[in-house]
């Protein structure tokens, strides 16, 4: 079954607004990671949060993890047009060494 | 320190030909992962290798696909007798020695394979 399902599938906002994307997963994890992918490009690692952590910040990014609900959220504050991209969450499941990706959220930030 | 290098960036093959995709991990990295991304989809794990060893190939199709990571040189993903359904973006990632639980993976720009 698909691990790391992002919600919403697509999000359209104006510059300066905040963008929140959610990710749900099904099994026990070691860590959860968020990646960004610009159209036709590779993936850029944004942030890693371990299973024993609840919140992490990096610049305008804030990630939360709720292992009891098996969910994570990525918040981008004061969005910019350059934030337009697809965002993927990926889980490193317990007992495994490889990442399982969701289908991603397409974020469009309009000037 | 160059990132993960994949080549070629774009590859066109006719049905029945072979496709060879190359991945040079970041300097000092000993773990290599291959993923496939279909249009409008997330990445699907294919194979995880360390130098001269396949650690996990549970995501690799049983036929026509093979991967290696030799002692010297890049990792190679090889697809024999390609079919239209193999058209996708293939991404390689690498991570440093150590437990994968504690390290992040760095991705290359991908190889976009088109089978005509």
Structural class of chain B: mainly beta
Sketch the major β-sheet of chain A.
6 strands, mixed
Q: What is the number of strand segments of chain B?
A: 11
Oligomer: heterodimer
Counting H and I runs of at least 4 residues, what is the number of helices of chain B? Answer: 0
Helix content of chain A: under 10%
What's the shape of chain B? Answer: globular
In whole angstroms, how far apart are the ends of chain A? 38 Å
Most extensive interface: pair and counts? Answer: A-B, 25 and 26 residues
Low-confidence stretches of chain B: none
Note the run of SSEs of chain A as H and E. Answer: EEEEEEEEEEE
Q: Are there runs of chain A of 5+ residues with pLDDT below 50, and where?
A: none
Write the layout of secondary structure elements.
The complex is a heterodimer of chains A (111) and B (116).
Chain A: E1 5-7, E2 10-14, E3 19-24, E4 29-37, E5 43-50, E6 55-58, E7 61-66, E8 71-76, E9 85-93, E10 99-101, E11 105-110
Parallel strand pairs in A: 2-11
Antiparallel strand pairs in A: 1-3, 3-8, 4-5, 4-9, 6-7, 7-8, 9-10, 9-11
Chain B: E1 5-7, E2 10-13, E3 19-24, E4 31-37, E5 43-50, E6 53-56, E7 65-68, E8 75-79, E9 88-95, E10 106-107, E11 111-115
Parallel strand pairs in B: 2-11
Antiparallel strand pairs in B: 1-3, 3-8, 4-5, 4-9, 5-6, 7-8, 9-10, 9-11
